[in-house]
């Protein structure tokens, strides 16, 4: 629940799409057992956009079990097509090209800068080990500054902040 008593938006990870040699794209379980039925909280603007897409999909005759963002054949979107659409979006926005996976890095950095503990970030990103999350983060400068201020206050409270030692 948020501050107003509204349920916080989230999505549930139930399946993943992978490429099976000789078959193509198939649905299957996520990489790790911990990721199955994983709840992923969503920021309100993202949840609103997904709801709009789902509503538009339903208005076009789509069903609840259909993919909201399918490939041309109604099946999961191929990674190459997804990348081409991402590149086109970046071009339209006048933004330099970055890997689509960089969105995970950005999320990890923003959560870190917001002071979210690494274990929680790992759970949001679906990492079974927090060490994997650290690969996506570069260090939280505001937290480091706050830590040094806390150390300064601690030293001052003990009379250890003087320069005559």
Quick overview of this protein structure:
The chain is mostly helical.
Please provide the ordered H/E string of secondary-structure elements. EEEEHHHHHH
Strand order within the widest beta sheet: 1-4
Strand-pairing-aware structural class: mainly alpha
Largest sheet: 2 strands, antiparallel
Domain module count? 2
Count of alpha/pi helices? 6
Helix content: 40-55%
- Terminal-residue CA separation: 52 Å
Enumerate the spans where pLDDT stays under 50 for 5 or more consecutive residues.
none
Task: Count the E strands.
Answer: 4
Portion of residues in beta strands equals 5-15%
Shape: elongated
Mean pLDDT: 82
Radius of gyration: 22 Å
Overview of the molecule:
By secondary structure, this protein is mainly α. The protein contains six helices and four strands, in the order ββββαααααα. A two-stranded antiparallel ribbon has the order 1-4. The chain has a two-stranded antiparallel sheet with strand order 2-3. β2 and β3 form a beta hairpin. It is elongated, with a radius of gyration of 22 Å. The N and C termini lie far apart (52 Å).
